[in-house]
Amino acid sequence: MTKSEAWDYAIGMLKVDGLTPTKDFQEYIEKEKRGEVTVDDIKKFLDKKYKIP
Question: What band does 52 get if pLDDT is binned at 50, 70 and 90?
Answer without folding.
Answer: confident
